[in-house]
Amino acid sequence: MVFVSILLGLLPSFLMVILGGLVRNRLSVNAWQGLDKLNFEILFPTLIFVAASGRPIAVGDILSIGPAVWAILTLGLCVGYLARPFGPERFVDFAGSWQVAWRFNTAMAFVAVGTLSSPPLGELAVAVGLAIPVANVFAVTALSRGSGSVKQTLIKVATNPFLIASVSGVIVGLSGVTIPAPIMAPLEMLAQAAIPVALISVGATMNWGALARLNRFSGIITATKLLVLPTVTLIGCLAFRIESPIAQTLVLFASMPTASAAHVLAAGFGADRELAATLVAQSTLLAAATLPVWITLIEVLL
Asked: How far apart are alpha carbons 214 and 219 in whole angstroms?
């Protein structure tokens, strides 16, 4: 039953990626790049802000969940770097794909958590809100490497729309302030558009032939995200006897496929957009097989 529920939850995302592949030739390359720019500057930052600010965040939750999700992200960063010898020669192209090893799909996380018998929605909201800034600092710093001086890199990190949106959202969540409905409504409309636009763009730019041919480079990256991170997290939760709602949240968080916006961020820094989009699609599609397994283990062991 869990397996079927997860597949049904992921099915719309898979169909949007397929749709992108079918309509690829309907728009020019410049048009697809324009959609990426729209997502990078407006749609996804709005989605991130809405996700982080939509639920109150308690200081105690930050102290218990924050260090754990930051450790998961750091583990993905370190293990994913093992793919460097097998990746593209240009570091920026590698960085565009490397981020797939630790970034996560927020929308899919909230779909997946609903399949649990006692969904830890509050804990997941805290985990996502705290993880987004760190995940994006890692990604933007890696993509900025070699593109200028340290000062220029810091400016790029500080002015990144994803980072600004996530930090702002966490601040609002901590403050407990409720954004007035007339202001929140258009933000939610923009946020709802982000995922479909990004998934269609992934399908349009993806090398569908490469999708069926996992090589050593993409295999290390996707295995890091879908197998290594949740395995280590599950073992850690059992070993340290982490309380159930937090343990469920951490393992679910670690098992998510990568963010569908990863190729958008890569394109924004001039990295190989097609390679990043293919890795995003591989991570998303392979998650159809891995997510039901992890959710079953969460239900049985945690």
From this structure: 6
- Predicted structure pTM score: 0.81
Q: Burial-class residue 300 by CB neighbours within 10 Å (0-12, 13-18, 19+).
A: exposed
Distance between CA 227 and CA 224 in Å, rounded?
A: 6
Tell me the residue length of the chain.
Answer: 302
| Chain centre to alpha carbon of residue 8 | 20
What burial letters (b/e) apply to 175-188, b meaning 16+ CB within 10 Å?
eeeeeeeeeeeebe
User: Which amino acid belongs to residue 129?
Assistant: G
Give tens-digit pLDDT for 48-86.
888 778 777 777 778 889 999 999 999 999 999 999 999
Q: What's the start-to-end Cα distance of the chain, in Å? A: 18
Among candidates 160, 172, 192, which has minimal Cα distance to 129?
172
Domain boundaries, the chain: 2-301
Model confidence pLDDT, tens digit, residues 21-52: 899 889 888 888 888 888 888 998 888 888 77
Counting Cα atoms < 13 Å in the Cβ hemisphere of 294 gives 32
Q: How far is 57 from 48, CA to CA, in rounded Å? A: 15
Which H/E stretch holds residue 106? helix 106-113
Q: Which CATH architecture has domain 2-301?
A: Up-down Bundle (1.20)
Torsional class of 280: left (φ above 0), alpha (ψ -120 to 50), beta (otherwise): alpha
